[in-house]
Specification:
The protein is an alpha/beta fold. The protein contains eight helices and seven strands, in the order E-H-E-H-E-H-E-H-E-H-E-H-H-H-E. A seven-stranded parallel β-sheet has the order 3-2-1-4-5-6-7, sandwiched between helices. Helix 2 links the parallel strand 2 and strand 3. The longest helix has 29 residues. Bound molecules: NADPH dihydro-nicotinamide-adenine-dinucleotide phosphate (NDP).
Length: about 250
C-alpha cells in the first residue's frame, strides 16, 4: 500500500486502531478519525510508539457538514485519500419492545447513515482520479439477528445494502466498494459479552474455530480490499467469523 493514504473512521481504539496499524505496516499513510480530540491525540501517540506517524481528522461521523469539510480540506491541503475504511460504530442493548427511539436513531445515524456521508464525500475526489477503495465495516448482523441489538441489526443490514448500492454506481468510476463482516471480536464494544461467562461459553461452542476473534484476524482482509489485488471485486461482504455464520 506504499504511496496510498487511508482514512479510518473511529480509529481511537478497537478494530479501527488495529486496522490502522495493519494498513500502516503494509505501507499506507494513515489518517485517524475520532470525535474527541484528546482521545484522537492519544491514539496518534500510541501509533507513534509503534513507529507509525499518523495524521488526524477530528469530526463526528454523524455530522454531514463536518465530514464534507474535513475531507475537502484534507484533499486540497494534504493530498488524496485513496482508501476509506468506514469503521466507526456504536452499540445499544435493549429489547426492541422497549428500545428508546433516540438510541435507535443514534445507532442508525452512526452505523449506517454516516457511511453514506463519508462515502459520498470521498468518492467525489476518487471519481476524478478513477481510483479508490471504500471498505465498510459490516457484521455478522448484516445477515443475522439476535435479541436486544435490534437497532444494530437494522443498521448493519443497511450497511450490506449500501455497500452493494455504492458498488452498483461507483464501480464505473474505478472505485471498489466492499465490506468486511467480522464475527465476535474482543474489543471495548463487546466487553460486556466477553465478561459474561455464559455468553462467552455459548459463543465458543457456536464457533467452529472455537474462540473469540481478535482484531489481527481482520487485518489481511483490510489489506486485500485496500490493494490492487481486489480491483475486480465490487459489492461483496467478506465474513470473518470463525465459521459462525455457515453452521447451525
Ligand atoms: P469500539 O467501541 O472499540 O470503537 C468504536 C470507535 O468508533 C471508537 O474509536 C469511537 O471513538 C468511534 N466512534 C463512535 N462514534 C463515533 C462518531 N460519532 N464519530 C466518530 N467516531 C466515532 O468498537 P469496535 O472496535 O468493536 O467496533 C468497530 C466497528 O466494528 C463498528 O462498526 C462495529 O459495529 C464493528 N464490528 C465490531 C465487532 C466486534 O465484535 N467488536 C463485530 C462486528 C462489527 P470515540 O468514542 O473515541 O469518539
Amino acid at each position: 500500500l506504499t504511496g496510498q493514504t487511508a482514512l479510518i473512521t473511529g480509529a481511537t481504539r478497537g478494530i479501527g486502531f488495529g486496522l490502522a496499524v495493519g494498513l500502516a505496516q503494509a505501507g499506507a499513510k494513515i489518517i485517524l478519525n475520532g470525535r474527541n480530540s484528546d482521545r484522537l491525540a492519544e491514539a496518534a501517540d500510541r501509533l507513534r510508539l509503534q513507529g507509525v506517524s499518523a495524521q488526524t481528522l477530528c469530526f463526528d461521523v454523524r455530522n454531514q457538514q463536518a465530514v464534507e469539510k474535513a475531507i475537502n480540506n484534507f484533499e486540497s491541503a494534504d493530498g488524496p485519500i485513496d482508501i476509506l475504511l468506514n469503521n466507526a460504530g456504536i452499540q445499544h442493548r435493549q429489547s426492541l419492545e422497549d428500545f428508546a427511539v433516540d438510541k435507535f436513531q443514534d445507532v442508525m445515524a452512526t452505523n449506517a447513515t454516516a457511511l453514506f456521508y463519508l462515502g459520498q464525500a470521498v468518492m467525489i475526489h476518487m471519481k476524478q482520479r478513477r481510483h479508490g477503495k471504500i471498505i465498510n465495516i459490516a457484521s455478522i448482523m448484516t445477515k443475522m439477528a439476535r435479541h436486544h441489538v435490534g437497532a444494530y441489526v437494522t443498521a448493519k443490514a443497511a450497511v450490506g445494502g449500501l455497500t452493494r448500492a455504492m458498488a452498483a454506481e461507483w464501480a464505473a468510476y474505478g472505485i471498489n466498494c466492499n465490506a468486511i463482516g467480522p464475527g465476535y471480536i474482543s474489543t471495548e464494544l463487546t466487553q460486556p459479552l466477553f465478561e459474561d461467562r455464559t455468553f462467552s461459553d455459548w459463543l465458543i461452542d457456536q464457533t467452529p474455530a472455537g474462540r473469540w476473534g481478535q482484531i489481527d484476524d481482520l487485518v489481511g482482509a483490510a489489506i486485500y480490499l485496500s490493494s490492487s489485488a481486489s480491483d475486480f471485486m465490487h459489492g461483496q461482504i467478506l465474513y470473518i467469523d470463525g465459521g459462525m455464520t455457515v453452521t447451525v
